[in-house]
Design a protein that fits this description.
about 45% strand; about 260 residues
Length: about 260
């Protein structure tokens, strides 16, 4: 802010606010101007250069395919998948905890899933849309249309129909590819709980498994495999086969490709 101080004047004064480039998501800050007993606050908001997408419409009753993500894109649907007892579990929608959902909170049940070449098939009801705001991400479930929040001392998903206190989250990728989804109001993050078959929050590093995020890519499908010779692979004119197929096994003269 230039200038930072000045004398009172009857004439308009020019104040310059310089903001560095923002490669992240939208952010904001406040600047307070004070003279004598008068005080006014100006809020400055800056758009970010990070990616966003138009949120797709998912049917909660249909199965969709989600791909393991390495970043969070605003407006995208994600399923949260964590490991426990050498199995993968997707975070279901909050209403899967029938005992507590009507009370305004939940410990969503885990759905056992299988990762096939970085893909999982999960019900659209278990998808959560992550939306970037100047205050952090909001997270809303598809099946219930409820925002996930936390403001108290509990370790459940608190739920609300609209954005309010406790609805903002910091999302940071960990070294192992999982994500720390940290509630900014209470400094607790989303985990698959060690002692239960459900998801919740923790403030301890050993409080449970932090999830990977899998992003929505389309309607669910089963992996398809085919065997071709190495000569066929290198001479094929099928661009889908040569560009998008993933090698899952290689023999002396053949390889197995996952479509």
């Amino acid at each position: 802010v230039t200038p930072k101080t000045g004398e009172a004047s009857a004439d308009p004064q020019n104040i310059t606010i310089t903001v560095l480039p923002n490669d992240g998501y939208e952010r904001s800050t406040t600047i307070t101007f004070t003279t004598g007993l008068l005080k006014e606050t100006l809020k400055v908001t800056q758009k970010g250069n990070n990616e966003s997408v138009e949120t797709a419409t998912l049917d909660p009753t249909k199965t969709y395919t989600f791909k393991k993500a390495d970043k969070v894109v605003s407006g995208q649907w994600y399923v949260m998948v964590a490991t426990k007892n050498d199995k993968l579990w997707a975070c279901n929608d909050p209403s899967s905890d029938a005992t507590n959902f009507s009370k305004g909170f939940a410990y969503p049940k885990g759905i056992e899933v299988e990762d096939a070449a970085g893909l999982v098939n999960v019900s659209g009801g278990a998808a959560y849309v992550f939306s970037a705001t100047a205050d952090g991400f909001t997270i809303k479930n598809n099946a219930t249309n409820k925002y996930v929040l936390q403001t108290g001392s509990h370790v459940s998903f608190n739920l609300a129909a609209a954005v309010g206190d406790g609805c903002y989250w910091d999302v940071t990728k960990n070294a192992d590819g999982t994500f720390k989804i940290n509630n900014k109001a209470v400094s607790k993050w989303i985990v698959m709980q060690d002692k239960y078959d459900s998801f919740g929050l923790s403030q301890y590093e050993d409080g449970g498994s932090q999830p990977w995020l899998y992003e929505y890519v389309g309607e669910g499908f089963a992996p398809e495999y085919k065997t071709v010779t190495i000569e066929e692979f290198y001479t094929t004119t099928d661009s889908y086969l040569s560009v998008k197929a993933q090698v899952v096994a290689v023999g002396a003269k053949t390889m197995v490709l996952n479509d």
